[in-house]
Amino acid sequence: MTTAPTAQTEPTAPAALREAAARLDGDDSLAPLRERFLLPPDVIYLDGNSLGPLPAAVPPALADAVTRQWGTDLIASWNGNGWWEAPLRVGDAIGALIGAAPGQTVAGDSTSVQLFTALSAAAALRPDRSLLVTDPGHFPTDRYLADAVARHRGLTVRRVPPARLPRFLAAEGDRVAVVSYSPVDFRTGELYDMEGLTRAAHRAGALALWDLCHAAGALPLRLDALGVDLAVGCGYKFLSGGPGAPAYLYVARRHHASLETPLTGWNGHADPFGLGRDYLPAPGISRARIGTPPVLSLIALEAALSAFDGVDLARVRAKSLSLTAFFLRCAGELLKPWGFGSVTPAEPDRRGSHVALRHPHARGLAHALAERRVIVDMRAPDLLRFGVNALYTTHHDLLTAALHLRDIVREGAYAPEPPAAGPVT
């Protein structure tokens, strides 16, 4: 996270890059979708892979939820305005974006809670197996919670990079309960072979659990078709549901009858208002509900998802690849002479929806870019991440970002170690 931007003039660009950006943006059939977001004027926002911008549909939806539903209808809104069904309704809307048929996805609680639920439930489905396998480069939450679930259930965590998983499973697969990975490396943007890794887990008799935080909404996902067992994801990155937006949990229908969740909250009871003494799980994915849902946040997320109405995710993916390929070209021509190196694969089928550049002064450069109204983020110790979202990012945005970055380094117009603006980077 960086300081508030101030206005800057646009830098000059090589003619070939300027013409390429204009041509690619001129041919972009998704360009009108940018109007579905309330982006600040003159800001180039390349941090939507951390927090998506505000969709235009959200403010009126929240205003209605607060002033009419809560303010006027009060507690009757649990029935009259569909508050009670919101976790399942929003879950199905997300399910449509991740290749899940209705009735398999529930929204609510945080990613950490959903991940704890998924890991624990997966382990319970394979009670005779002692290993939980995860990526050593996984996002910290995934690594921390794998350790926590292992302690809770008496399992052993094995950290295996995705490329080495098939060989590991060939040797020790009969001991593996669940394999937990992400389709996209949160640091480098590398896209892993979700289908192949899921198949490898199943050959070993293990379950496949995927963290979709950096994939859902950015590329087509086919959870049902690939036979994925469980998946989790957040609502605030490419889905643009707002800061701290509810996360979601997917569980394949074939596991519902035997699904045991570790947090048996009253919302997951078969008769929650019967107030029975003992817990009896609800049928289907409803048993994965836990506590009272965060209604206002769910309403904001539901409105945000309308930005995908009528959108073909295959076209989103095609534009995303065009954007990241163009930025890699810009980085090679404009930034490589100034000490930047890409850690994002050049091959399209190995690339997610952000590009990461390595530079020893990444933090200072992110602050300097923000002062020129270009918002990116950095990941310690030395990565600058440039996130693209095909619903609103343009090739011109990426060219301008690269030009500003080139000029900042060329002019030495940054502090290598800027003072922290706050605890969030």
TrEMBL record:
Cofactor requirements of the protein: pyridoxal 5'-phosphate
Record-listed pyridoxal 5'-phosphate binding positions: 111-112, 139-142, 211, 214, 236, 266, 292
GO molecular function: transaminase activity
Keyword tags: Aminotransferase, Hydrolase, Pyridine nucleotide biosynthesis, Pyridoxal phosphate, Transferase
EC number: 3.7.1.3
Residue(s) carrying N6-(pyridoxal phosphate)lysine: 237
Keyword Lipid metabolism: no
Entry keyword annotation includes Transport: no
Function: Catalyzes the cleavage of L-kynurenine (L-Kyn) and L-3-hydroxykynurenine (L-3OHKyn) into anthranilic acid (AA) and 3-hydroxyanthranilic acid (3-OHAA), respectively.
The family this protein is said to belong to: Belongs to the kynureninase family.
Subunit relationships: Homodimer.
Protein name: Kynureninase
Native source organism of the sequence: Streptomyces griseoloalbus
